User: Fold this.
Amino acid sequence: MNKITEELLSRRSELIGMRNDAVHRMGILTYQGVPKYSLRISSQRNQMYLKNGSEVKYLKKDKYHLAAQIAEYNYLSKVISKIDSELTFLDKYLGLCDGTLPEDYYESLSQGRQKLIVPVRLTDKQLVEKWIATPYEKKPFAEDDETEFYTDNGERVRSKSEVLIANALKKHGIPYKYECPIVLKGIGKIHPDFTALNIRRRKIYYWEHLGKMDDPDYARKNTFRLNMYEKNGLFHGDSLITTRETSTLPLDTKLLERIIDHYLLN
Assistant:
């Protein structure tokens, strides 16, 4: 079952629950004897009237509970009508859909047939292969940098925390690039620590790990850097991920897992 079908079935279940609740509440109002009138409210005079055909009755303040009953009954009736319309649409879609999205139909074909066809959209596998295969120039290490930290992919990175991040991405099967350059207006070419691909959303995320947040100069420079991301439309929580640590508060690996799940797996 594809993700869209799952979400539609979840929505259908939610709608049925809301409908049942609305029907139950209407039943209570009917039992209480909700007046068979329509309600008219004068916003200018702050007055309420009951209307039945040509008959109009002014409603005194001590009878406003009747207005509340009528208003709620009408509201619930409209809600049920809207729910029924959406359920009709969902049932029609789910009845016509065989569980395979048009863009996923290619993958249901035999390999021999796939070789003869150019899909209307790259499959997830093709997308990842193409993205990973695109070459880029990494940020060079200084000649006097004697620290050597390596990820499970054999990449050299700049800190133990970056090893943890890279290995966590690899563990979850998330394609990523280390220090792949981008150009931001106002700052020029920079190298985000990680550029990761959310396969399901087909969306790129830039990930900056801020490892020395108790260093005032480091914090100042990286605050400016993060501001430049957002001035270029790459907002934190949307296209930009950050993790942080200090000399006394190391990277939280449990939080790291939650961040990956939230941004890159859903």
Observations:
- The chain has two domains: 3-99, 135-264.
- The radius of gyration is 29 Å.
- The chain has a mean pLDDT of 90.
